[in-house]
Amino acid sequence: MKKLLLIICGCCLNQLISAQNLQSTLTVKGTVIDSVTNTALSYGTVVLQNARTKLPVKSILTKEDGSFELKVPTGNTYQLALVFVGYKGKTMAVTGTDAVVNLDKIVLSPANKTLDAVSISAAKPLMKQEVDRISYDVQADPETPALTALDMMRKVPLLAVDASDNILLKGSGNYKILVNGKESALMAKNPSDILKAMPATNIERIEVITTPPAKYDAEGLNGIINIITKKNLSQGYNLGFNGRMNSVFGPGGNLNGTYKQGKFGIAAYMGLSHNKQPELASGSTQYFFQQQSLLTQNGTNTFAGNNGYGNVEMSYEIDTLNLLTVAADVFGNKSVTSSGQLSDMINSAGITQQYYNLTNDGNSNYLGFDASVNYQLGFKHQKGRLFTLSYKYNYSPDKELTDNSFSQRFNYPQSAIPDYRQYNNSGSKVHTVQLDYEHPFKKLTVEAGAKAIFRNNFSQYHVDDRDSVTNQYITNPAQTNDFNYQQDVYSLYNSYQLSLEGWAGKAGLRLEHTGINADFTSTGSFVTQDYNNFIPSISIQRKFKTSSINLGFTERIQRPGIYQLNPFVDRSNPSYISYGNPNLRPELNHTFELTYSNFTKSSINAGVSYAFSNNSIQNVSGLQVVSVNSKNDTITTSTYQNLGSHSTLGFNINTTQNITKQLTLNLNGQLNHVWLEGAYNGQLYKNQGTMGNFFANIGYTFGKGFRFGTNAAYFSGNITLQGKSGSGTYLSPVISKTFLNKTATIALAVNNPFSAYQTIRSSTTTAQYDQSSFNQGNIRSFAIRFNYRFGKLTSDIKKNEHGIDNDDTKGGGKSSGN
Questions:
Q1: Predicted pLDDT at 2
Q2: Taking Cα atoms as reference points, which of 541, 521, 532 lies closest to residue 582?
Q3: At 779, is the secondary structure helix, strand, or coil?
Q4: Which is nearest to 315 in space by CA: 304, 303, 325, 305?
């Protein structure tokens, strides 16, 4: 079979090469020079476009002497687009019937100021280093039609996606994800699930804001990931459809479109997907020092779920100075889980002391919804001067039910520990009001604003025990509580951005006042907190001809989210229980970073950073002894605490090498050394270690729209206060074909073809026990993806420059900082 596949692939490759050799070509060449100095302009972007569709056909960087040469198939009309940083862009028609068109010297004039954006479609650099962020232009990546949004995250500097599909920023989960500069219901729970289902074609660019300015809420210890979605459209419309079929995750579809008529514009997308997981193994082994006993637990688990998501943004230009926009996001998830587990407690003599078989059947129903309205006022004699008033509402209920039943009991009596059901209805409601004012001067831009967030987190949970006589479920009052957590945040900010020739700087200060009132209705107890935070930020950029050096410092707050605060006791595994801590205080982090960027023929972005916190929020474990049937039983508890110090020294690098006109190599990696220290249960813990991740992509473009690429990654695992997790790998070859004038793409992908499963191991060491555990993941899958778009697409729907972005709380999903 393998030989047959090799023969078929060889034949196809031979046909492609033969077809390219037989097809006549057109050669376009020239030399680009500066209109003032009459010197050559090296390493600028030159793009040959289809004159009718304006879509790029081939691009290249000019050589050191300013020359370039592009070869394309004959039979079409072309135009040439030139984009050089610091120069006015130019578009030229390619005329003539000769096989070689020599445009000779092409003169570009210096721009009066550095362009903030380039209007020529797809003729932009892949990456851009700004004073406080790195931008990755998704639409400039030739692999975009064949990849998911999650795949694209792997390519972005400072970002990584580990073997469990968790998104990492600088190797950590402590960050915040925004969509179009605003908090979104789409990313509130499990952003990796949404990004896995969303095609990369929905995204315009991805920004990694490593030194967030004062206008952003102070949350996100390592920074902010801002996903900018596409909204391009002139008068008329465009529509796009994306579909996928994955052998493991299941089917998915996405529909997106934009429409503009006169002063009204609308951009929207929606999608559905099905996720499933076959039966996978997991387990743990725990050795108790004092008892000299061993607890082993092994089992299997399955998962299936359906996701639906949507986004809509509408704008109405009342006149040239007044703009009204409305936006809404919705995300829904329904999932079903099932697991079986054997638990065996053995004493030092090897004799079983306790044994049971536990079955868990659960389901959850999550809804995330937010809606916002923004009014923007411009000023007649000053284009960049803006006043914005915004309001946003967010609602995210989450209902969970787990049915737990025992069998094969030994020394685990039903009278003391009956079968039980867990109910947890939790979520949040948030109202936000914000004012923003921006005033540009000649070289200085001043921003100021105020914001108020009224956040209500809630949880109503109870456990029902099954009566051994009647088999009826009866609510257990000792495991019942109504939790209401009211958090009000008031903030003021002021920031300044200065742009000089060769230099840029941004500095600001944010003042936040937080008031907290937590009410445990069932127990009649209260928690009250009140504190202020001053959050400075400063970024300095030294710009050269083709490179820049950035220096930044900021302080960031990590407020605990509902998943860390909720006192709900999860007893899905009665030997390992977990619960939140409503007494948590916010973590304050200090970050310094130095970055070098050079976007020439071989682009590179490299940086070092150092961050530290003295009251970090850590997930910690310990033992608790409970009485079961007049005998002591030891269980492991897991919760969150503000503990000691957390320091990280990090190095990151991203480079793209254009080896030939058809062959491109991209490398992206981070390496961090972590120091952790904190006291828990009267015991001082210290841990340190090096962790990192590495991603590589190599792509080759054939003729007739064929492209082949391979993604490979390695992840070392995480270091925690009491342990560490194991490493993992990732490999995904993708082949794609564009057709119908590049409006349609079909792609075939294979994820991790050499192994069906991957086992991630982790370990925990405390003063009372050692524990090792493993989780098996299904990593091999086959996928087919289809992308099609049509309609007119040339300019932008007008949108507000400012809006609400509640990035001030720690996310609860597996990829948003939990």
A1: 42
A2: 521
A3: coil
A4: 325
DSSP 8-state class, residue 230: P
DSSP state, residue 201: G
Residue 13, pLDDT above cutoff 50 = no
What is the DSSP secondary-structure string of 378-427?
EETTEEEEEEEEEEEEEEEEEEEEEEEEEEEEES--TTTS--EEEEEEEE
CA 674, 685, 610 angle in degrees (round to 5)? Answer: 20
Task: Region of 752 please: left (phi>0), alpha (psi -120 to 50) or beta.
Answer: left
List pLDDT tens digits, range 618-645.
889 988 876 555 566 778 899 999 888 8
Tell me the residue ranges of DSSP E strands in 289-381.
293-317, 322-346, 352-379
Is the pTM higher than 0.85? The answer reads no
d(CA 547, CA 113): 17
Tell me the backbone φ, ψ of residue 18, rounded to 5 degrees: -65, -40
Alpha helices (runs of H) in 654-809, residue ranges in sequence order: none
d(CA 298, CA 776): 12
Nearest to 605 by CA among 129, 60, 61: 129
DSSP assignment string, 579-603: ---TT---EEEEEEEEEEEE-SSEE
Residue 405 φ/ψ, nearest 5 degrees: -135, 145
What is the DSSP code (8-state) at residue 753? T
Q: What angle do CA 142, 147, 150 make, to 5 degrees?
A: 125
pLDDT digit string (tens) for 67-90?
888 888 887 788 888 887 667 788
Which residues are paired to 177 by β-bridges?
Answer: 225
